[in-house]
Amino acid sequence: MIELEKININNLSLWVQQAKNQAVQGRVIERIPPLAIANPSWFAVNICCESGASYSLGDTACVFPLMSLIKPFSLLYLLEYFGAKKVSEWVGFEPSAAPFNSLEQLIADNGYPRNPMINSGAITLADKLPGKDGNTRTQLFCQWLNQLAGCQLELDKELLSSVRATRSPANLAIAHHLIKTGHIQNLEIALDTYEQICCISGNVQDLALLGNSLACNSSSINSENRNIVNTVMLTCGLYEASARYAIKIGLPMKSGIGGGLLAIVPNQGAIACYSPALDSIGNPVAGLTFIEALSSELKLNMNH
Fold first, then answer.
1. Angle subtended at Cα 89 by Cα 87 and Cα 93, rounded to the nearest 5 degrees
2. Which of 60, 215, 237, 273 is the 20 to 30 Å CA partner of 295?
3. What confidence score (pLDDT) does residue 1 get?
């Protein structure tokens, strides 16, 4: 394994170019108007190493919503707050082969969400975040993340209005089933909190700094909780494609429909990409191409 910080900057720009060439195979999400205006050829990467060294290339000023990328961090927050035993009463840590917003899967599992990376699990955890309502919960959570990682995430209020106006019928159906089976307490607060935390936004540097809190030992995070989050990312972070990439790339990863992609290199650092063109499953095409090249060249795959 070549250490992440010994990366050759010329190779890096070559891999960025190769990744950008792949973006034409993806499509920008159209369901949420502010996301639909993103340029499919935008690409940014920030690599944040344990030593403090960092590398960034591309459209690094782009700010994007974390969307599903927030899920590993709401899991981490609740693990730190309540402990693994309590959190596992709320959600499982099992992979799912169904789409991320599958109601059928939830019904088959008697209302107990498979894992926190699919919507049923994330909505359940949103119901458990500390705070009396969605606004308070989001504010407390965002402050915690910024303090933890030294990043500058903010809630994108304009995007939130759009998300609220186009509320996903699938998420509403999931929330109704979670109420019916007693897995969440308050449908409106759970959904509102979930929509708000998905609209927490930043750039690739913010995302890489967040990732570093999962990659490296620190006094502020329990290492057992970090390991749980990384394992769940490895097995569940890329929806139905998770198992394929766990073998192919072999790093804990999480994607979001806003175009963000995060890969954790345990004990070395984090790689954050932004590329808004998505594949049919909802994963960023160029970001995955880039991380695959990087993992292969630097031999970062944990399976090897």
1. 70
2. 60
3. 65
Domain architecture of the chain: domains with CATH:
4-67+202-298 (3.40.710.10), 70-200 (3.40.710.10)
Angle at 108 between CA 167 and CA 192, to 5 degrees: 25
CA distance linking residue 29 with residue 242, whole number of Å: 20
Q: Is 25 exposed, middle or buried (0-12, 13-18, 19+ CB in 10 A)?
A: middle
Per-residue burial over 91-120, b = 16 or more CB atoms within 10 Å of its CB, e = otherwise: bbbebbebbbbbbebbeebebbbbbbbbbb
244: which 2 tokens?
A: 């394929």
Write down the pTM of the prediction.
0.97
Tokens 């198992």 belong to 243
Taking the chain, what is the end-to-end CA distance rounded to the nearest angstrom?
Answer: 9
Q: What is the pLDDT of residues 32-55, one digit of tens each?
A: 999 999 999 999 999 999 998 999
Residue type, 291: I
Whole-number Å distance between alpha carbons of 120 and 177: 9
Sheet holding 200-202, edge to edge: 64-65, 200-202, 154-155
> In this predicted model, what pLDDT tens digit does every residue of 261-294 receive, in sequence order?
999 999 999 999 999 999 999 999 999 999 999 9
Sign of CA dihedral 56, 297, 68, 40: positive
